[in-house]
Design goal:
single chain; 562 residues; alpha+beta; Dipeptide-binding Protein, domain 1; Dipeptide-binding Protein, domain 3; twelve-stranded mixed β-sheet; five-stranded antiparallel β-sheet; 26% helix; globular
Length: 562
């Protein structure tokens, strides 16, 4: 048996701003699942917050720039939801301060020799936040719930693509061979369709969290809307739900490691205007903020005001609707990509230290000490725009007169930085291609719903790894995958991804990933902008927090200095 198998993953420092969300869910707060990060947990400058001065208690307030669509771990892929979920729920494995996987609810695990069966052994006497016993059956129920179509789980594919019988259950309600079972109260088994060397990375995702059947049965979809029904198992529990304003968490005394949780109260406030949030931070009204106005980043660095920069395994890009005329033509998509000046966006628009992107797949995954993206081609994309080649591609696509090209709808989610980027890209497309461009925006929930339905031409997006493996990115352009918002389809690409998904040899896996990346990037399904870095602010009297490269911020060991 192979004990505690893990992937060798090395995250490089990516320079970029964390823009969208996991799987898509977030705005520019430095979220999506394209982004940034550092794991030290402390920073320069800062004063005691107003709440701390008054109470002297371990209470922290952190500001987010957008609202989550839900805090249901079985449903959402929203990057703003993860702040609540990651701190209220804990799965079989979790992440430590070094960004490494470690034991969570499971104290040990093993796989069979071909990595098709994983067995997890739960800790004794695990409890839900209401004090009732948590068992392996709660994980089985959660898996079945995710695979129930009515749940509309945004990460259902992380089960249906890998777990035996999960797709049959999802498609037909056939649970006769469902590959998740409780051997006993403390032993859980997952049977996989094929070898999966990165299954622990999948299990770290919040969609693999346990759920208490009783609270979901009793409350239905409303179980996340009140503190009383939001039964969880992490270091914190929900105390208050202030719709549109905040979620208030308190220490979960029934957490298995509660003795190491110092914070008594953790408040996530929602302030959609990043300038307003920054003012609150600089006035000492809050302890930290997720989204930093791009124009203030250099000033805040110079002032040593508490900017934290964390390496991110993510990319910032725009989705291009590959099923919609005329964007279903790869030459049109190429023209758009060639017309954008990435260097200008990085230096003068977002004003960050960043690396221009040539593909949606970022650097950050290494095999035998070498990043698998090292030495890859740039797919004709340079840091500067190439108007001549862009117009040639558009002409070859049938638009010799750029004025004959239909008005391009450029969409972004409501966020100061996203707005600046969209407006800059619009001007570049007008100038370098000679086409007409309209710019539109909406709040994240409305915006992302439209994206998922395909109601867009070119739209702001991006991705930060859901789990720390290239397979978090490859499904983004896999035919019919739930995360394929660009509606790209290529059977040859799908075949390579299918092979990579079950390849146990890391060198062969890396070669397949590079082949898949090359195949899709040469067809320009997305407009790559830059590789990300997670940037946020935290006062220097706060320590012990840590962020992992998917942008998740953990507060279970956080302390405020008096």
């Amino acid at each position: 048996m192979k004990k505690n198998r893990k992937l060798l993953l090395v995250l490089t420092a990516l320079a970029a701003l964390f823009l969208s969300a996991c799987g898509g869910g977030g705005g520019t707060d430095a979220s999506s699942r394209e982004e940034k990060l550092d794991l030290s947990g402390s920073s320069a400058a800062g004063e005691k917050t107003e709440s701390e001065e008054k109470s002297g208690k371990q209470e922290l307030t952190y500001v987010l720039s957008n609202l989550p669509d839900s805090i249901d771990p079985s449903y959402t892929n929203n990057s703003f939801a993860m702040y609540v979920i990651r701190n209220c729920f804990e799965g079989l494995v979790t992440y430590n301060q070094k960004g490494e996987l470690e034991a969570g609810d499971a104290e040990s695990w093993e796989s069979n020799d071909d990595m098709t069966v994983y067995t997890f052994h739960l800790r004794k006497d695990l409890k839900w936040s209401d004090g009732t016993a948590l068992t392996a059956k709660d994980y089985v129920y959660a898996a079945r719930h995710v695979c129930t179509p009515e749940t509309t789980a945004q990460y259902a594919n992380l089960f249906t693509d890998y777990i035996v019988g999960a797709k049959e259950f999802y498609d037909k309600g056939d649970d006769s061979n469902f590959g998740v079972r409780a051997i006993d109260d403390q032993t859980l088994e997952y049977r996989l369709k094929g070898p999966c060397s990165f299954f622990l990375d999948l299990v770290s995702m919040w969609c693999y969290s346990p759920l208490k059947e009783e609270t979901l049965t009793k409350n239905g979809d409303r179980w996340t809307q009140s503190a009383e029904s939001y039964i969880c198992n992490g270091p914190f529990r929900l105390s208050e739900v202030n719709n549109g304003e905040s979620y208030v968490l308190v220490r979960n005394e029934n957490y298995w490691d509660a003795e190491h949780t110092t914070l008594e109260k953790l408040t996530f406030r929602f302030v959609l205007d990043s300038s307003t949030a920054l003012t609150a931070y600089e006035n000492g009204e809050v302890d930290g903020i997720r989204s930093i106005p791009s124009g203030d980043i250099q000033r805040l660095k110079a002032e040593n005001a508490g900017i934290i920069m964390e390496p991110s395994y993510g990319s910032v890009f725009y989705d291009i609707n590959c099923q919609k005329e005329p964007y279903n033509n790869p030459l049109v998509r190429k023209a758009i990509c060639l017309a954008v000046d990435r260097e200008e966006l990085i230096s003068n628009v977002v004003q960050i230290d960043a690396t221009p992107a040539y593909s949606m797949l970022p650097p950050g995954y290494s095999v035998d000490g070498k990043d698998i993206t090292e030495g890859r081609e740039d797919f004709s994309l340079k840091p500067k725009a190439d108007p001549e080649l862009a117009r040639e591609a558009l002409k070859e696509a049938g638009y010799e007169d750029p004025k004959s090209f239909p008005t391009l709808q450029l969409s972004y989610y409501s966020d100061d930085t996203a707005k600046k980027i969209a407006e800059a890209i619009a001007e570049m497309l007008k100038k370098n291609l000679g086409i007409s461009v309209d710019v539109t925006s909406a709040d994240w929930a409305v915006y992302y719903d439209g994206v998922r339905q395909g109601n867009y031409d070119v739209c702001a997006m991006g991705w930060s790894a859901d789990y720390l493996n290239p397979m978090s990115f490859l499904p983004l352009v896999y035919t019919d995958d739930v995360s394929n918002n660009v509606r790209f389809s290529d059977p040859a690409y799908d075949k390579i991804v299918d092979e990579a998904r079950v390849e146990p040899d890391q060198k062969k896996f890396a070669e397949l990933v590079k082949e898949a990346d090359k195949l899709q990037a040469a067809q320009y399904p997305v407009l790559p902008l830059y590789y990300k870095m997670n940037n946020f602010l935290m006062h220097d009297n706060v320590s012990g927090y840590y962020m992992i490269p998917d942008g998740s911020l953990f507060f279970r060991y956080t302390k405020l200095r008096k």
